[in-house]
User: What shape does this take?
Amino acid sequence: MASSGEEPRSGSPGRAGAGTEAAADAAQLDTAEDFEVLEEEEEEEEEDEDDLSELPPLEDVGRPAAPPREDAQPPERVGGDAAGDPQEWLDVLGNGLLKKKTLVPGQGVESRPQKGQDVTIRLKATLEDGTVVEEDPALTFTLGDCDVLQALDLCVQLLEMGETALIVSDAKYCYGAQGRSPEIPPNASLTLEVELLAARDAPDLELLSGKEKIQLANRKRERGNFFYQQADYVLAINSYDIALRIVGSSSKVDFSPDEEAELLDVKVKCLNNLAASQLKLDHFKAALKSCNLVLEHQPGNIKALFRKGKVLAQQGEYREAIPILKAALKLEPSNKTIHAELSKLVKKHADQRNVETEMYRKMLGNPSTASTPRKCKDKLPWSIPWKWLFGATAIALGGVALSVVIAARN
Assistant: This one.
């Protein structure tokens, strides 16, 4: 598949067992989910690529953590770590699920970092039983871009320079219902010890080299993939949008042809994944725009053709969707998912035409005849477009009105 070369094959080892879970969620998951695989880096092995058929249904995302955790009292649980500290716990969001407590004061409110700045923190993350699951002496990220856990993104902007704080977060603002295997189980709350080390303005995109711009855009794209896997499609869209802004930003630096080609590749991947996320949220107009942007660069991109066909089908535009899916199938005749989707649309389109035929027949005073073979219905002369019918009616009424006027004058 030349136009979207990273598409994993159904026999890939990393996808074993996907069919069982997909069948269990058949009522809620898209029937063509196994085709909608996020674009991956070329250097990744096939067995590590994502199988989105294993994603949980959207309804499961953001579900409450285990009840005992919500009823727990973070100050008492971690109070021993901050013994003698006079600071109270700050309920960051007002829902009791994200709390912050100062352990070592910083340099004042005016030293707090601003959104869009690159910040560096010292991080130590532990489970409720005290197990350390992550340590980083100098974690750097862009504040407000959702590059890290939401708990960090929300709380670090409240830290003063040099401040050390304890953050107790519900799973909703950490790794959610998916967890992070094997260290972090599903629906696990975390305690984060954070120290703000530095904050500086983000680099000027116009001055980035081609390699730097590619790396930065890919980091944002990969973060979008993470959110997609978590079924958090809103944050996935946010990350893909940021990556696209980076790729599309103006530059004062000359790029090599290879760098230009790689930037275009990142752009196409982001647009394809953006369309997949928008489809999950039923944002059909936006998804159609994303697909069309891909096809402007790569008219033979199978993923974009497939998703465009799905968008049009969701909107009831079967006549437009069918040739697009046929074009995708022509590029990859062995793809069973496209075959299934196309067969489904052809049937729906035939049913739609039969309904219209019956409606037109009744409007013209010719009730349906049971003896008429179903296969011949589409060939009957009653399939008159609406606009023709209304046009003929308008002409007839206009003629009557004109006759009345002439008679009145005479």
Notes: The mean pLDDT is 76.
